[in-house]
Amino acid sequence: MALKITDPFWQTLGLGTLAGMRSMSAPAITSHILSHHHSKRLEGSALNLIQSEKVALVLKVLAVSELVGDKLPSAPNRISPIALGGRCLSGALAGACIYKAAGGNAVTGGLIGGATAVASTFASFFIRKITVKRSHIIDPIVGAIEDALVAGGGVALVTTAV
């Protein structure tokens, strides 16, 4: 089936938002989409690897592992410099791939995805902290609710991308 990305700007915003919440979600979702709907526009570029079914599988395993690891007390804050940088790169990678696959500029997609991931990282961090404090629900439960939002957002992005 041919790839038809309906709106790369909004899809990149969505992927960037998910990257801020769960760093591996955006590359996993992007790779899932592109491994099932190859884009000739990515062929011959460094971004072509994301279209591999094996890469998609590895990214999905990493994304699920992140969901589990996030609940551990030893999980670092997502706003620490290293974690923030990883989320920014995750959103940038997803945005660059989506934009290039749609025939747009990969740099533009990367900038939009990365910037959105940074904004989402801070927003989701503080929303989660405030929710835990005000609701008195333990943090892992709030994290599981966040996981459900990421999963639902991912499904929505996959179904609207093609």
Automatic annotation (TrEMBL):
It comes from Mucilaginibacter agri. This is DUF4126 family protein. Residues 12-158 form the DUF4126 domain. InterPro entries: DUF4126 (IPR025196).
